Amino acid sequence: MLKQFPENGMDIQKIHETLDELGKNDIKNSRGRLFTYFYDPGIDELNKLQDIFLKFSNRNGMDYHAFPSTLKLENDVIAMMASLLHGKEGSAGTFTTGGTESIILAMKAARDRFFEKHHGVPEVILPVTAHPSFSKAVEYLGLKEIRLPVDEHYLADPELMRKAITENTAMIVGSAPSFPYGTIDPVKELSDIALENNLWLHVDACVGGMILPFLKRLGHNVQDFDFTLPGVSSISVDLHKYGFTPKGSSVIMYKNEELRKHQIYVNAKWPGYPMSNAGMQATKSAGPLAGTWSIMNYLGYKGYTDLASKTLSAYKTLTKGIENIGYEITGKPDATIFAFQDNNNSIFTTGVNMIEKGWYPQIQPSNLKLGLPSTIHLNVCPVHVEVADEFLSNLENIHKNAGKDSDSRELAVESRDKAVDYLVNLIEQNPEKKTLFFHMIYNLDPEKGEEIFRKITDMDFHAAEE
Q1: How far from 262 is each of 109, 116, 226, 274, CA to CA, in Å?
Q2: Which residues, 6+ apart, have CB-to-CB distance to 257 below 8 Å?
Q3: Above 60 in pLDDT, residue 412?
């Protein structure tokens, strides 16, 4: 029986109790235990700014004529980001809900620019390490993606990308850094290719955009990735990552307004009010925007530089310690996120054991057909300075006792050619066998793995029952 719409309202105390009960199994930040999902600056004073989020939560950013404060806040945030990314007068941008929306908007703008002079299906050329948001945009916007192998350092290969260019190419993509490995693609070379071929170059700096400029200020070797390079057309930056702003805070930045114009949606062909939206949303809460403006102004350049220094210190301690334990750092990370692997093939067990001990890294199964290793991924934050030694001590104990999870691996290989429904049921019936799931994803054909995910997602999201 479906859960019924309540006849009578619930009192406030009961609401709090119910939500607390529902959230008891949610991952908690626990002061540095998370290396994914949450970017923790370790600054308690920032909690005092939460009231600003609530104060602006019911102000509608769609109609900035009715709420002019929202326009001022957004223009301020865009200007600050343009200056941080070496934009010039005329730089343009939009505040969005996250990296996915930022990327979809950039690809929509590039697509429509392509249609001004070309016919056919627009193509996007990108390395296999580029974020899935690009593939999502391709699916939504009716584009075609050309995903290319990376080099031995897990970086985009400029020559492969150059050779893949056709008359239908609308965009090429680089990451600064890539999410899986923390490596910055050779954006300078990609910029040159974009200029030579009059192509749109998008730089995905969702992870790096709010820390790389400050690492550079500290003297860390950071290659140019922003509007310093003339071939860069657009940059996506998540402010809710290393900007430490409320979830739902990102920007898409353009070299100029001419490039942004195709992003804007306008409709005056209906009997209601004329609609004009800079981004994908119409009605939107100004809470994340006000929270972002407040935190950026509270921290300032110096505050962010200090946080970058702490993050870099934690990163160096962790990477050195992980290598000393016997793991291999994957590729040559350029920022403060990275992945590590175990050549003895017990990386899944290692990751699951860390989770069981209260640490939350991100396990990256990869896929056998991609030719890329399975790894554990860590997003390092300032707060991890406080817990790095404890983390390494736990990891070393796990490594000493590590063994191959042969039972899971055999199940995965044996079931490789079974029906998707069988595999989904296997996972449902064996929730404690987390390694089984990762081994299956690694060994299966990628399309089969996606089919499993689709089936599970469809099962998970359903109308609740009493």
Answers
A1: 5, 10, 21, 18
A2: 90, 92
A3: no
- Let me know: does 163 contact 172? Beta carbons within 8 Å: no
Asked whether residue 409 carries a pLDDT value surpassing 70, the answer given is no
Q: What are phi and psi of 154, to 5 degrees?
A: 65, 30
β-pair type (265-267, 169-175): unpaired
Q: Does residue 213 have a cis bond before it (omega within 30 degrees)? A: no
Q: Please answer whether residues 349 and 435 qualify as being in contact, where contact means their C-beta atoms are separated by less than 8 angstroms.
A: yes
Beta bridge partners of 277: 265
Say which range, 87-96, 99-108, 258-267, 343-352, has the weakest mean pLDDT. Answer: 343-352
CA dihedral sign of residues 249, 254, 259, 260 = positive
Per DSSP, the three-state class of 170 is strand
Q: Which helix (H) or strand (E) holds 198?
A: none
Measured at the CA of 31, the angle between CA 26 and CA 32, to 5 degrees, comes to: 95
Q: pLDDT for 45-90, tens place per residue?
A: 888 888 898 888 888 878 887 888 899 999 999 999 999 999 988 8
Rg of the chain over all Cα atoms, to the nearest angstrom: 23
Q: Are 197 and 189 a contacting pair, CB within 8 Å?
A: no
pLDDT at 74: 95
Residue owning tokens 């050549």: 343
State CA 93 to chain mean position distance: 19
Cβ distance 314 to 385 under 8 Å?
yes
Tell which residue, 212, 244, 210, 264, has the closest CA to residue 93: 264
- pLDDT over threshold 50, residue 302: yes
- Grouping H, G, I as helix, E, B as strand and the rest as coil, residue 299 is helix
Could you tell me the CA-to-CA distances from 220 to 142, 215, 224, 385 in Å, in that order? 40, 5, 12, 18
Mean pLDDT of 108-118: 95
The total of other beta-carbon atoms located within 10 Å of residue 273's CB is 9
127: which strand partners? 148
Question: Is residue 217 pLDDT above 80, yes or no?
Answer: yes
Each residue of 171-193: pLDDT tens digit? 999 999 999 999 999 999 999 99
- CB-CB neighbours of 389 under 10 Å: 12
Closest CA relative to residue 246, chosen from 25, 16, 27, 39: 39
pLDDT tens, position by position, 135-172: 999 999 999 999 999 999 999 999 999 999 999 999 99
Non-local CB neighbours of 243 within 8 Å, separated by 6+ positions: 210, 237, 249, 292, 295, 296, 304
- Burial (CB count <10 Å: 0-12, 13-18, 19+), residue 126: buried
Short-list 415, 388, 371, CA closest to 152: 371
Length of the chain: 466
Q: Is the pTM of this model over 0.85?
A: yes
